[in-house]
Structures are given as C-alpha cells and as structure tokens.
C-alpha cells in the first residue's frame, strides 16, 4: 500500500481514508452470554453472564446491563475513569438505541449514538478513529451490544411463540464488546506490541432486492462485496495484503455468496476470509443454523479473539468489516427489501 501523495489529504480513492498518525486500540472488553461461552471462543471473553436476564425484568434492560458492564470493564482494563474518555460512540439494534442510552447514561460521557445494524461496531470504530486522528478527541470509547431474546422480540417473534427457524436464519449473539481508541501518544511504553487503526473504507447502502428477513447473510453479502472491492481498489492492494479479511455475521450462507461475488471480479479471498458469525458458535453442537449475528457478534469476537491474534503476532494486518442489514419491523411488514451496509477498518500490529 503506497502512502497518499498529497500529505494534506487523508482521502484515498473513492471511499477510503488513510491515517497519517494512526490511533491505537488502548484496551478492549467482551461480555458474553452463556450460549456464547459454550462456543469455540468461550474461554476468551472477559465475563460470562449465566443469567440471560442479568437480574433484570426485561430483555431490553438485560441488554443495557450488558453494555454497562462492557463499558466499565474496558475502562478498568485501560486503568481509566469515565472522565478520561472524551466521547462515547455506540449503538444497538433496539428501537431508538435504548440499550445504549439506558445502559451507559450513568457514565456521563458525551455520547454519539449511531445505528448501522450489525455493522455498528465498524461504524463506531471508524468515527472514533477519525475524531482521534483528526485531533478532535484524545480517547474514544466505541461500544455496541445485542441480545438474542430482545432481537427475536423486536424483529421476528417473541420466544414464547415457538416458531420454527429456517436453516438460513442466524442466531443473534448475546453480548457487548468495547474498545478504547486513543491518540498514539497514549501508547504504553516498552516493547509491548501496539495495535493501530491504519485506515478505513466507509461502506455504502447496497440493495439486491432480497426480502427474506430470515436470511440476513444473503442480504448483507453484496454490501460486504462492494466494500471489500472498493478497499482493494482504493488502496491498490489484493487479498494477500491482509492476513485475514474478517466479515461480521454473514454466516455460512453469506460467506459463500461473498466469495463467489469477489471471484467474478478476479479477487479470491477464500484462503484468508473469516466470518465472526461462523467462528463464535459450534455449528455441529449448538444448533445455530447459519451462524451468529447481531451487533455483539463481531464486537465480542474482535475484542477477544481477533485482537489476541494481533497482539501475539499470529496476524500482522487484518481487514475487520462488520456487516449490517438495514431493516426494521416496520419496513419488513410493509414488504420492503433488506438493504445491507458494511464498514471496513484496517487494523495492524506495530
């Protein structure tokens, strides 16, 4: 990847940014539910919640508690107080972001609430990196969450209904992931590896006209395809530039569609592609059909597993790209299609 010729501009190509003073990821935290702890990544999460209600009365309150715990945990791991964070950028799947606003209000951190469906962690990290690298903030807390029961209640049918899920359906992850993005001047001293955000590719809305709300992988795969292709074109790289190209929650159905779409453009990512929705559950033993989904899916996978691989040097550079399906219960019931979006973040070990 060549540096931008004009040093006054950080814009690269059509949709991307390259940071001249890349911000660092200072700390991360992951809070996961019981089912998630029983999957392949279970030993990596910071905290496991055995009670799906987290001691609360409703699923929505439970998700707010998930997010509160993730925010407090990442602050603890960074050795910071809430007053040390300039802005908090976060969102969730619930109407009007109530998991976020009710969950972290007590921290009294200025909030930028965002919605990108399951791509929200990528959007939060993108905006946080821009603010830090641009000198508009010194430390940002990026956070998101999802809850299986809350998502089923809002987007599909309440659990008590007992409907049958098709094999194309994914399982919404119960969990919350958070990272603190900071100016490079806050990097720990010594020989400890630094994890930086080198650049981003901001995704656009892509709609192939799919109307099946039980097949989110197929709806989101075209958006992932467009963002990855644009990232390659903007930065002048090919799939081998990244140790891993990581999508958020395409699952087994969307993964194959993405690979096929890119092959049509002569990009083969089959050797180094990874999907968080596939990694987080055991397909043979956990009955999650197409895999995991939800804002928390990519967030807790990134905060636990992906950053671990980077810190240990297993991977040097990844393209982390949460994927989102931009539907609501209103749009679906009115017969609209399900557009997708995906935001890509270049994360490197330095």
Write up what this structure looks like:
- The protein has 350 residues and is α/β, with parallel strands linked by helices.
- The chain folds into two domains: 23-185, Peroxisomal Thiolase, Chain A, domain 1 (3-Layer(aba) Sandwich), CATH 3.40.47; 194-349, Stage V sporulation protein AD (Peroxisomal Thiolase, Chain A, domain 1), CATH 3.40.47.40.
- The chain is built from ten helices and 17 strands.
- Strand 1 (11-12) and strand 2 form a beta hairpin.
- The protein starts with 10 loop residues before the first strand and ends with a strand.
Could you outline the blueprint of secondary structure elements for this entry?
Blueprint: E1 11-12, E2 16-18, E3 24-33, H1 34-37, E4 47-49, H2 59-78, E5 87-91, H3 98-104, E6 111-113, H4 120-133, E7 139-146, H5 148-155, E8 171-172, E9 175-182, E10 195-201, H6 216-235, E11 244-247, H7 251-263, E12 273-275, H8 276-279, E13 292-293, H9 295-311, E14 317-321, E15 323-325, H10 329-333, E16 340-342, E17 344-349
Parallel strand pairs: 3-4, 5-6, 5-7, 8-13, 11-12, 11-14
Antiparallel strand pairs: 1-2, 2-10, 3-9, 7-9, 10-17, 14-17, 15-16
Helix pairs in contact: 2-3, 6-7
């Amino acid at each position: 990847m060549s540096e931008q010729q004009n040093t006054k501009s950080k814009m690269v190509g059509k949709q991307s940014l390259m940071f001249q003073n890349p911000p660092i990821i200072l700390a991360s935290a992951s809070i996961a539910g019981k089912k998630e702890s029983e999957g392949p990544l279970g030993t990596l999460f910071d905290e496991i919640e055995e009670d799906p209600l987290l001691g609360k009365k409703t699923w929505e309150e439970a998700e707010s508690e998930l997010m509160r715990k993730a925010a407090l945990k990442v602050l603890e791991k960074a050795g910071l107080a809430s007053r040390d964070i300039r802005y908090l950028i976060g969102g969730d799947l619930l109407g009007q972001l109530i998991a976020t606003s009710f969950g972290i209000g007590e921290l009294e951190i200025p909030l930028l609430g965002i919605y990108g469906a399951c791509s929200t962690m990528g959007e939060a990290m993108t905006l946080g990196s821009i603010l830090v690298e641009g000198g508009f903030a010194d430390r940002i807390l990026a956070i998101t969450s999802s809850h299986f029961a809350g998502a089923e209640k809002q987007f599909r049918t309440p659990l008590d209904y007992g409907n049958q899920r098709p094999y194309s359906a994914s399982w919404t992850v119960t969990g919350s992931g958070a990272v603190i993005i900071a100016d490079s001047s806050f990097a720990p001293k010594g020989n400890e590896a630094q994890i930086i955000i080198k650049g981003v590719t901001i995704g656009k809305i892509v709609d192939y006209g799919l109307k099946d709300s039980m097949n989110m992988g197929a709806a989101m795969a075209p958006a992932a395809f467009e963002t990855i292709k644009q990232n390659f074109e903007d930065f002048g790289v090919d799939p081998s530039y990244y140790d891993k190209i990581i999508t958020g929650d395409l699952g087994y159905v969307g993964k194959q569609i993405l690979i096929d779409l890119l092959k049509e453009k002569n990009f083969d990512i089959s050797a180094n592609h990874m999907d968080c929705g596939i990694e987080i559950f055991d397909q043979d033993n956990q009955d999650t059909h197409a895999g995991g989904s939800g804002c928390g899916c990519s967030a807790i996978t990134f905060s636990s597993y992906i950053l671990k691989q980077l810190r240990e040097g297993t991977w040097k550079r990844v393209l982390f790209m949460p994927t989102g399906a931009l539907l609501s219960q209103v749009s679906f019931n009115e017969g609209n299609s399900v557009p997708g979006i995906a935001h890509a973040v270049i994360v490197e070990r330095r």
